[in-house]
C-alpha cells in the first residue's frame, strides 16, 4: 500500500467544526438506560423474609435481623457501601420485593450514610398473593 | 560493551499495573529480560472456594474489568457442564452477542493504547471516542458499562428487545465505517507504520514453542482460535474467519486486531438477524454434582481456561483460572530480546497485558537471605505488619 504522510490531518480539521463529543456533566446529564442497575431498594410490603437475597448476595451487603418473633417484625439493612450493583438480589427475590433504581450519583463523605434500613412486619402468604394480582 | 541490568517497575510510568521487568542491556539493546509477578495478587481462587456458585459468577467477573464477560462465560460453561444443563439457544445467542461486543470494545481500547504508546495520540483519542458507542450498547443491553453481569448458570439474565436490536445495528454500522477509516489510516500513515513495523519480532516457530495465545499468536501466522478449534456457545453455527498476519511484529498485531473488529461486526449482525425465539435460561440446581471440568474460551486477549472441581456441595472445591496474559509472558521475553529500551512499553502493550488477571500466586522472597518461604497470612501479618484493631462498621 502507498504511504501518505499526515493522512490524519483532514479528519482532525473536520472535527474543529463539530460539536463536542462530551456533555458538560454537572450542568447537563445523560439519561441512563431503563434497565440501569443503580441501588437496590426494598418494597417492604412484598417481602416474605425468605432470605434468598441474603444468601445469594456476593458482597454480603444485605442483612435481615428479627426484631420481634411474635409480631413478625424484621429489619432489613442494605449496606450500599458494600453493594457491587450486580442485581442478583432482584433476581433471587421470589416476590419481586427488591428493585434497582436509576440513581448513579451516590457518592457521600461517609460510608455510614450509604446504609439503608427498612423496618417492617411480614405479610401473610395469602395477603401476598392478593397484592401481587 | 558492559552488560548492565535495569529494573522497570514494579512502579513505573510506562506500566499501567505493577509488574517487575528486569532488563539486561548492552548499550540501548536488550539482551535478556526477566519478568517477576506477584505485586497484584488478590487471592481470588481461594476466595472462590468460600462462595457459592452463584456468588462466584460476580467474583469471576471481577478478575478483569475489560474481559469481564470472558471470565464469567468460561466459568458458567464449566458449571453448566458439571450440572449437565442444556442452555436454551436464545440464551447462547445473547451470550455470544455480548462476548463479541466485548471483543469490539477491548480491541478498540487496545488500538488506542497501541497508538498512544507509538506516539500517535490523536488516533488514541478518536478510537476511544468511538469506543463509547459500543460501551453504550453494552449498557443498554446489560445495565452497566463494565461489569455486564449478563451470565447466569443456565443461560443469561436479560432478554433483548426489538428496540435494542435496532440500536445495536445502528451502532455497529457507525463503528464499521470508523474501523474501515482507521484501517486505511493505520496502514498509510508513514510515521505510525515506521514506528511499529519490525518491532517485537516473534517468529512463527517461537510463538508455537512458547505457547503464545490470541492475537499475539495469530500475528505470527498461526491460525489458532478457540472459537474455530473448539467451538463453544453457538460459534459452530456462525460464519466467520480467523484473522492472521505474517509480519510477526507489532504491526501484525495491529492488523490482526483490526481485522478481528470487522469479523466481530459481522458476527454481531449475524446474531441479531438470526436470534431464535424462546427461553433465555433454565433453572440451575443450587448444588452441583461431584466432578471436575475444564472450560475454554477465546477472550479478546487469547485463550482463557477455567478449571472447576466440585464436591457435591453448593461451593466449588477448587477453581483455577489461566488468564491469557499469563500464557503470553514467555513470548514477551522473546519479543523483547534484541529490541531497544525505547520499545519496551510498545512491545509490552502489544500483548494487551492485564497483569492482575494473570496474578495467581505470590512468592515471598526474603531480600536479605534470598530464600523463598511458604507462610500463612497470619504469620505475614505478625512478622511484617503491626496489628491494627479493625474498625467495625
In short:
The complex is a heterodimer of chains A (133) and B (393). Chain A is an alpha+beta fold and 133 residues long.
Oligomer: heterodimer
Mean pLDDT of chain A: 86
The helix/strand class of chain B is alpha+beta
Q: Measured on Cα atoms, how large is the radius of gyration of chain B? A: 22 Å
Question: Which descriptors would you attach to this protein?
Answer:
heterodimer, A: 133 residues, alpha+beta, Alpha-Beta Plaits, 3-stranded antiparallel sheet, 20% helix, B: Cytochrome-c3 Hydrogenase, chain B
Plain-language structure description:
- The complex is a heterodimer of chains A (133) and B (393).
- By secondary structure, chain A is an alpha+beta fold.
- Chain A has a domain at 37-125: Alpha-Beta Plaits (2-Layer Sandwich).
- Chain A is 20% helix and 20% strand.
- Chain A is built from four helices and five strands.
- Chain A has helices spanning 9-16, 52-56, 88-92, 125-132; strands at residues 40-42, 62-68, 73-79, 98-100, 115-121.
- In chain A, the strands form two sheets. Chain A has a three-stranded antiparallel β-sheet, with no helix packed on it.
- Chain A is elongated and about 80 Å long.
- Mean pLDDT of chain A is 86; it is low at 128-133.
- By secondary structure, chain B is α+β, with helices and mostly antiparallel strands.
- Chain B has a single domain, classed as Cytochrome-c3 Hydrogenase, chain B.
- The chains are: A alpha+beta (133), B alpha+beta (393).
- At the A-B interface, helix 3 of A face helix 2, helix 5, helix 6 and helix 7 of B.
Amino acid at each position: 500500500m502507498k504511504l501518505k504522510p499526515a493522512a490524519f490531518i483532514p479528519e482532525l480539521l473536520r472535527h474543529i467544526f463539530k460539536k463536542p463529543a462530551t456533555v458538560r456533566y454537572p450542568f447537563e446529564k445523560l439519561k441512563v438506560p431503563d434497565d440501569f442497575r443503580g441501588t437496590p431498594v426494598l418494597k417492604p410490603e412484598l417481602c416474605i423474609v425468605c432470605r434468598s437475597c441474603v444468601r445469594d448476595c456476593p458482597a454480603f451487603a444485605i442483612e435481615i435481623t428479627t426484631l420481634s418473633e411474635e409480631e413478625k417484625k424484621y429489619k432489613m439493612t442494605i449496606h450500599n457501601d458494600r453493594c457491587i450493583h450486580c442485581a442478583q438480589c432482584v433476581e433471587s427475590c421470589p416476590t419481586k420485593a427488591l428493585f434497582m433504581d436509576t440513581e448513579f450519583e451516590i457518592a457521600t463523605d461517609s460510608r455510614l450514610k450509604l446504609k439503608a434500613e427498612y423496618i417492617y412486619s411480614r405479610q401473610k402468604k395469602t395477603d401476598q398473593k392478593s397484592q401481587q394480582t | 560493551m558492559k552488560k548492565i541490568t535495569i529494573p522497570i517497575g514494579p512502579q513505573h510510568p510506562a506500566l499501567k499495573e505493577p509488574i517487575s521487568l528486569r532488563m539486561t542491556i548492552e548499550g540501548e539493546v536488550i539482551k535478556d529480560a526477566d519478568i517477576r509477578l506477584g505485586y497484584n495478587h488478590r487471592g481470588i481462587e481461594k476466595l472462590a472456594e468460600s462462595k457459592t456458585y452463584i456468588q462466584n459468577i460476580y467474583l469471576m467477573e471481577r478478575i478483569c474489568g475489560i474481559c469481564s464477560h470472558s471470565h464469567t462465560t468460561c466459568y458458567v460453561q464449566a458449571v453448566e457442564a458439571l450440572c449437565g444443563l442444556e442452555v436454551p439457544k436464545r440464551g447462547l445467542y445473547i451470550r455470544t452477542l455480548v462476548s463479541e461486543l466485548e471483543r469490539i470494545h477491548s480491541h478498540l481500547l487496545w488500538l488506542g493504547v497501541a497508538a498512544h504508546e507509538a506516539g500517535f495520540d490523536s488516533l488514541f483519542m478518536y478510537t476511544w471516542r468511538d469506543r463509547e458507542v459500543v460501551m453504550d450498547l453494552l449498557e443498554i443491553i446489560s445495565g452497566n458499562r463494565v461489569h455486564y453481569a449478563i451470565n447466569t448458570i443456565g443461560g443469561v439474565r436479560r432478554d433483548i428487545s426489538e428496540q435494542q436490536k435496532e440500536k445495536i445495528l445502528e451502532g455497529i454500522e457507525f463503528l464499521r465505517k470508523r474501523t474501515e477509516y482507521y484501517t486505511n489510516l493505520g496502514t498509510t500513515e508513514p510515521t505510525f507504520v515506521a514506528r511499529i513495523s519490525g518491532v517485537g519480532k516473534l517468529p512463527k516457530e517461537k510463538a508455537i514453542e512458547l505457547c503464545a495465545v490470541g492475537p499475539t499468536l495469530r500475528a505470527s501466522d498461526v491460525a489458532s482460535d478457540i472459537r474455530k478449534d473448539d467451538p463453544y456457545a453457538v460459534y459452530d453455527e456462525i460464519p466467520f474467519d480467523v484473522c492472521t498476519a505474517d509480519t510477526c511484529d507489532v504491526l501484525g498485531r495491529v492488523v490482526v486486531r483490526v481485522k478481528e473488529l470487522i469479523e466481530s461486526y459481522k458476527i454481531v449482525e449475524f446474531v441479531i438477524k438470526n436470534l431464535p425465539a424462546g427461553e433465555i435460561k433454565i433453572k440451575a440446581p443450587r448444588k452441583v454434582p461431584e466432578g471436575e471440568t475444564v472450560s475454554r474460551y477465546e477472550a479478546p486477549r487469547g485463550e482463557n481456561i477455567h478449571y472447576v472441581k466440585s464436591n457435591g456441595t453448593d461451593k466449588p472445591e477448587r477453581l483455577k483460572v489461566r488468564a491469557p496474559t499469563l500464557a503470553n509472558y514467555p513470548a514477551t521475553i522473546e519479543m523483547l530480546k534484541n529490541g531497544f529500551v525505547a520499545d519496551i512499553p510498545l512491545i509490552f502493550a502489544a500483548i494487551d497485558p492485564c497483569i492482575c488477571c494473570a496474578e495467581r500466586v505470590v512468592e515471598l522472597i526474603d531480600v536479605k537471605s534470598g530464600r523463598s518461604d511458604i507462610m500463612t497470612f497470619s504469620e505475614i501479618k505478625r512478622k511484617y505488619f503491626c496489628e491494627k484493631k479493625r474498625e467495625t462498621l
